[in-house]
């Protein structure tokens, strides 16, 4: 991937692609310096960028380009190409490409060979027909065709992402709804109920943590998120908020275990409730930071996640307090439905790019 | 930020320090001595800079020579690809004489003295017996300032067979006549 030849910039050389281009098609320089040649170039020429609507504000400007050049999906794939077939896997899935490569190559190679053989060995009439068809195809091809293979990267945010959203919503939602109900007078918190709630929330919070770590490409580096924090990122802020909620739950457990005055649990809840709310909702702001992805454009995502955590929290509370069979079944159904909804919300936008 | 430059200055050619591209973000320094040379892959004879790794003494890569008045730092793909030719196993590094029938691919290494003696003997015999039409000088690409051509002319031999008479002479004739 391009890193702007950082190793060359360090020694004040231009990027390699700029040097090697025989027609100087690439212009590089300091965009922040109004006197630099690139700034002058941008002032004198009309330029476009890729996906300006994403808000990503890219620093790569294209001169005299077209939609077909900027957007790989603007052209149609015009058939299998022997040596450009990257369908096996690139990038995130390169490690699986080895095992899939055999299958992909053989298939398209067989098809290609059969066609070539037919074209060569055909009698004059068949050859004329093939020639006619090809001419017609060529005429159709006034629109630009794509001759490279842009492989889909597949699903990058898989089941772990939707799963941790749900487990997090359960953990934070149950605590939030229980505390809200308690303060509103609808719920009487017995010790047994406190234990069940605290243990349950801690378990689900722990599951969330495990899933978060498992989802990382380099799980062994998960501590970097906390110890080398980038405070601009909701990944970091969320991790600390999650940790703080875990702390509140741990303290609550301690109070119960050492049989301190139950009023302290209510004091803790005053910090715990906003923490729980933030825990359940912060993922929406994290998705919002991932500019260029479809979820970032959804302004209501935070509200939607709040509603989901309230629903899940209420369902858990029903499971903890009710004994009526039908109501319990209803609660389980609710949890299943919300989980499926979360799963499809995460997966569907990624499936759109598959072809 | 100081303005970016394209090529290292000749002052630093003997002590050129570069960072390893693949090791980034770890900064691994590589010490090069840049030796200007000429590409031999075609008649354009573009300038190249050989990046000689000071630690190993081997050529690591070829890039353009900005001070070559013709190529001015740019090359086609063949120039930098010359790195593949250096260690090619099929490079002929010593005089070889054929062993066995033509086409069998049998060769034995002989010394320079032997090679020069044998070839000289055969050329002299041919010149004495049949005259100047019996000798042909074949070379892939002439690159020796025309010395061999002077020898041929001294012998009266009009038998220079190389890239020149097959390819570039045609172009040069056009230039000369147009």
Largest sheet of chain B: 4 strands, antiparallel
Number of helices of chain B: 5
How many strands in all of chain A? 2
Q: What sort of overall outline of chain A do the alpha carbons produce when their principal axes are compared?
A: elongated
Largest interface: A-B, 20 and 19 residues
Radius of gyration of chain A: 28 Å
Q: Can you summarize the main beta sheet of chain A?
A: 2 strands, antiparallel
Order of helices and strands of chain B: EEEEHHEEHEHEH
Count of discrete alpha- or pi-helical segments spanning 4 or more residues of chain A: 13
How large a portion of the residues of chain A is in β-strands, by DSSP E? under 5%
Number of strands of chain B: 8
Structural class by sheet pairing and helices of chain A: mainly alpha
**SSE sequence of chain A, one letter per element:** HHHEEHHHHHHHHHH
Helicity range of the residues of chain B?
25-40%
Cα end-to-end separation of chain A: 23 Å
Strand order of the largest sheet of chain B: 1-2-3-4
Overview in brief:
The complex is a heterodimer of chains A (355) and B (178). Chain A is mainly α.
Describe the structure using short key phrases.
heterodimer; A: 355 residues; two-stranded antiparallel ribbon; 13 helices; 2 strands; elongated; B: 178 residues; alpha+beta; 8 strands
Give a description of the structure.
The complex is a heterodimer of chains A (355) and B (178). Helix content of chain A is 62%, strand content 1%. Chain A is mostly helical. The mean pLDDT of chain A is 84. Chain B has helices spanning 78-81, 83-86, 112-130, 147-155, 163-177; strands spanning 16-19, 29-38, 47-53, 59-64, 96-98, 107-109, 137-138, 160-161. In chain B, strand 2 (29-38) and strand 3 (47-53) form a beta hairpin. In chain B, 29% of the residues lie in helices and 21% in strands. The A-B interface holds A 3, 5-14, 18-20, 22, 28-30, 33, 36 and B 1-8, 17-21, 24-25, 27, 64, 73-74.
What are the SSEs and their pairings?
The complex is a heterodimer of chains A (355) and B (178).
Chain A: H1 6-9, H2 16-20, H3 37-44, E1 47-48, E2 62-63, H4 67-70, H5 94-121, H6 124-140, H7 159-184, H8 191-215, H9 224-227, H10 234-257, H11 263-289, H12 301-321, H13 325-352
Antiparallel strand pairs in A: 1-2
Helix pairs in contact in A: 7-8, 7-11, 7-12, 7-13, 8-10, 10-11, 11-12, 12-13
Chain B: E1 16-19, E2 29-38, E3 47-53, E4 59-64, H1 78-81, H2 83-86, E5 96-98, E6 107-109, H3 112-130, E7 137-138, H4 147-155, E8 160-161, H5 163-177
Parallel strand pairs in B: 7-8
Antiparallel strand pairs in B: 1-2, 2-3, 3-4, 5-6
């Amino acid at each position: 991937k391009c890193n702007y030849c950082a190793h060359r910039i360090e020694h004040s050389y231009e990027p390699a692609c700029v040097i090697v281009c025989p027609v100087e098609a690439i212009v590089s320089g300091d965009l922040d310096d109004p006197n630099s040649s690139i700034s002058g170039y941008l002032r004198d020429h009309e330029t476009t960028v890729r996906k300006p609507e994403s808000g990503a504000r890219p620093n790569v400007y294209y001169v005299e380009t077209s939609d077909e050049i900027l957007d790989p999906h603007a052209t149609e794939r015009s058939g299998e190409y022997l040596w450009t077939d990257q369908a096996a896997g690139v990038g995130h899935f390169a490690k699986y490409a080895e095992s899939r490569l055999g299958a992909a190559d053989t298939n398209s190679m067989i098809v290609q060979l059969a066609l070539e053989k037919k074209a060569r060995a055909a009698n004059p009439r068949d050859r004329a027909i093939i020639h006619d068809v090809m001419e017609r195809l060529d005429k159709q091809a006034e629109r630009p065709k794509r001759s490279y293979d842009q492989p889909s990267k597949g699903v990058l945010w898989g089941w772990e992402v939707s799963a941790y959203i749900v487990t997090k919503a359960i953990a934070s939602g149950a605590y939030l709804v229980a505390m809200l109900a308690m303060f509103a007078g609808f719920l009487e918190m017995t010790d047994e109920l406190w234990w069940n709630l605290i243990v349950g929330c801690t378990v689900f919070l722990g599951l969330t943590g495990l899933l978060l770590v498992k989802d990382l490409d380099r799980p062994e580096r998960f501590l970097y998120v906390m110890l080398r924090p980038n405070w601009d990122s909701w990944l970091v802020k969320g991790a600390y908020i999650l940790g703080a909620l875990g702390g509140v739950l741990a303290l609550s457990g301690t109070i119960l275990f050492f049989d301190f005055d139950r009023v302290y649990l209510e004091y803790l809840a005053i910090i715990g409730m906003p923490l729980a709310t933030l825990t359940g909702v912060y993922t929406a702001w994290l998705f919002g930071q991932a500019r260029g992805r479809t979820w970032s454009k959804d302004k209501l995502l935070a509200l939607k996640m709040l509603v989901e955590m309230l629903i899940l929290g209420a369902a858990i509370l029903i499971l903890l307090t009710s004994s009526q069979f039908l109501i319990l079944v209803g609660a389980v159904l609710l949890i299943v439905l919300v989980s499926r909804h979360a799963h499809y919300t995460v997966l569907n936008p990624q499936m759109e790019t598959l072809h | 930020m100081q303005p970016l430059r394209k090529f290292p200055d000749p002052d630093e050619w003997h002590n050129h320090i570069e960072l390893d591209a693949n090791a980034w973000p770890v900064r691994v320094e590589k010490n090069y001595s840049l030796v200007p040379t000429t590409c031999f892959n075609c008649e354009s004879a573009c300038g190249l800079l050989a990046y000689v790794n000071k630690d190993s003494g081997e050529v690591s890569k070829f890039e353009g020579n900005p001070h070559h008045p013709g190529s001015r730092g740019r090359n086609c793909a063949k120039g930098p690809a010359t790195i593949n030719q250096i260690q090619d196993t099929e490079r002929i590094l010593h005089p070889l004489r054929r062993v066995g029938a033509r086409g069998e691919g049998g060769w034995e290494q002989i010394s320079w003295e032997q090679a020069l003696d044998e070839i000289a003997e055969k050329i002299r015999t041919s010149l004495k017996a049949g005259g100047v039409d019996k000798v042909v000088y074949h070379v892939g690409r002439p690159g020796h300032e025309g010395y061999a051509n002077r020898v041929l002319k001294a012998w009266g031999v009009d038998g220079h067979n190389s890239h020149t008479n097959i390819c570039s002479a045609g172009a040069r004739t056009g230039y000369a006549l147009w």
